Each structure stands twice: as C-alpha cells, then as structure tokens.
C-alpha cells in the first residue's frame, strides 16, 4: 500500500488535510491512500502551471514531441507495476487493464508526440481589398494560427483513469499548454504515479500538476480558479452541467465528454452475420468493464421480426459470462467501482420491475463476497418512456426494445437527452449509412463497436460539447489567432 502526496511543481506535496483511503472494488480492502486537496493547494497547483506555461509554449515542437515520446516509453517500461496498481484500484479485469488501459495510455502519448509536429499555421489566400478611411487598399495576406489555450484543468472519470488522462494531457501538452489534473476520487493512484514519470521524461516542473480529493471540493476549486483558461471534463451529464455553468461565468473554454445511452439498432434486413455482430456488440455492455463505459449500447432496438431471435441470443450470451475475481483470467465480468454504484444500478433494475418490465436474465446480486458485483442483466418488455430505457446506469444492464419501422426506430433512438454513440446493424451498409444520418449522435458504428482513433469523439445534446481524438483533440486544446498583413 502506497501513500501519495499531491504532485505540484515537479515534486510531492504533503496534503494539509491528510489522506483518504482507496478501496479495491473486488476485495473491499484499502490499496492505497490519496491526498485530500484544499482550495489553497489547488491554487498552488494552478500558480505552478501558470508560471511554467509560457516557457513550455515557447519550446520547439520537436522538444515537446520528444518528451511525450519518452513518456510513452516509460509507461511501457513500468507496465507491470502500473497494471497491478490500476487493476487494484479500479476492479477492472486483469485482461482489460493489461491490454486496453496501460498500453492505450502509452499509445495516446505517442500519438500526440506526432501531433506536436503537426502544422499549426493555416495559410489563407491573399485577398484584394479596397481602401477605406481606416486603411489603404491592396492585396492583403492572412493566416490562421493555432495557439495554446494556456492553463487547462483536466477532470477525469473513474472508468479508465490513465487512458482518459492521457487523452486529455497529451494533446494539451503537445499544443503548449500547462495542465492541472484532478482524477476521479475513486481511483486516482495510478494517475498520481504518472507525475514522476513525466518529470523523468523531461517535462519541466509545473507543466503538469495533479491534485486529488474524495469529494467535489478540489474539482470545484479548479473550475472556479481565475488562473485556469479551459476545463476538459469527462463524467456525468449532471456534473458537466454544473461545471459548464461555473466555467461560463468567467468564459473558460470547455471540452465536455458526458453521459450516454447508446442504442444498437438492428434493422429488419439484418442477416445472420449482422445479427451475430449485434449480439456481440450489445454483449460488450456486460463483458467490457462491467458496463462502466459511456459508449456502451445499453439499449438494443430490434425490428419486431428479429426481436425474439436477438433476445434469445443475448440471454444465452449473458449466461455464458463468468462473474468473479478480476485477477482471474477466466473472469469476464468484474465488480463495479463502489458499493454506491452497485446500489444505484440495483435500484434501476428494481425500478424496471416496478414499472412492469421483465428481467430475462440476471437482476439479482451474485453470490460473491466481498466485492461490488452486479450480474449481467437483460431487461425485456420495457417501453421507451421507462426510466431504465432513458437514463444512464453505468453498469452491466441492457434494455431490449422492439420497433416496427425505421421511423419508430429513429424516434426511440433519439428519444433520450443523450447523443454520444449509437450503432446500426444491417445487411446493407448503404442503408445503414443513410439511417445514421437521422441519428442525433456524435458517433455511429455500422456493424461494429470498433473505434477509429483518428475520428472526432464527442456527443450531441446533453452528451457533451466539443471533440477530442486524433488531430481534433489538438484543435480542442488550442485557440485560433488570425494574422493579417499587407502584401
């Protein structure tokens, strides 16, 4: 068990208020202690970032690229201990942390090492302009140039702590910004462990600072601080709205990746291959981090002619999944992050029963102790207006809904306040492409849940503001400055 301080200005800072325990969701044992931040300590971190940002922004792109590249190497070199710590504090399965968390974090730093070298000047064609009382006429040249935003506050979610952090910090640093990071309270230890690695990679002191806290106070202090120019947040829509309101009072830039209630839509022409793909995709709600993922297709909308086939396939799929100890390689479904989250998901399941829906599989707490487990659950007989079909649960629960035609499918799919990620399954990809245009969703997968790392990622409606991913992530952490001159 390790006790950490805040990472401020390139060194550990002992917290004034002491520490709080981080609990392993599978064993319910304390695996480490994280520092409890005061507003004064958050302000200290912001001051360090403010002082370091100008110098960092004036380093050459190649220097910034070298630091990010070296960071990717160091994450890979320390993979064994990072995987162990990350698995213990998140409760994610060992195969998930070793294959899709630590390596992906390294990949993101390496991607934005390349991103630091991408052009920041957008040349504009010279334009003939007539003279005016303000200035003489002539051929006027211009360019749009991407500049750093300044100090970025990065507030991350608990489901993928270092992947989410890397997706924010790496493009922010590549563009010449300084960062104050505030990881989720449930599992901040691995994020804290990255501080010394970035110093070892050559990042100047103060360019990245990390503060933590067990409640909302540290994040609130970061959002309110006048020395912060931008807030990048991943988390719930409810918290995102609070952050947006606070940030708006000082016109801070925001990047918000918020909740989702994804729909996997199985069109009536889906053949055996498409149906099989849909069942596998929806099954990922159960098998991928126990449904604790905002892009999960937690609703499956099926043409009535295929509804029973899909429900039968999903029921069988759910029953094959092993729920248990996440360090056992045969385990597919591990625990949820906390007792509070388990209780929240169970309350949604109970609410669905009370509203008249049927639990086709799951719905009861697994006979496993200790640990915060929820069985893979499939809910049928629901209607689109039921709470379980409209709100984000963040757990291993799927709701199956039938539709009769594409217009009805669109109404159901678009009928929530979310619009992050939907999926369309069809034997005709041209038809799926046309159908996707009717979905109010920032991302649409056609016959797959696979992601493309260069696509812009973000949501419509209450699923967020702005886009990250690929070069779009670089754009999000920059301001456009126009330069004009006489030719």
From TrEMBL:
<dbReference type="Pfam" id="PF00171">
    <property type="entry name" value="Aldedh"/>
</dbReference>
<dbReference type="GO" id="GO:0016620">
    <property type="term" value="F:oxidoreductase activity, acting on the aldehyde or oxo group of donors, NAD or NADP as acceptor"/>
</dbReference>
<dbReference type="InterPro" id="IPR016161">
    <property type="entry name" value="Ald_DH/histidinol_DH"/>
</dbReference>
<feature type="domain" description="Aldehyde dehydrogenase">
    <location>
        <begin position="12"/>
        <end position="482"/>
    </location>
</feature>
<keyword id="KW-0560">Oxidoreductase</keyword>
<protein>
    <submittedName>
        <fullName>Aldehyde dehydrogenase</fullName>
    </submittedName>
</protein>
<dbReference type="InterPro" id="IPR016163">
    <property type="entry name" value="Ald_DH_C"/>
</dbReference>
<dbReference type="InterPro" id="IPR015590">
    <property type="entry name" value="Aldehyde_DH_dom"/>
</dbReference>
<dbReference type="InterPro" id="IPR016162">
    <property type="entry name" value="Ald_DH_N"/>
</dbReference>
<comment type="similarity">
    <text>Belongs to the aldehyde dehydrogenase family.</text>
</comment>
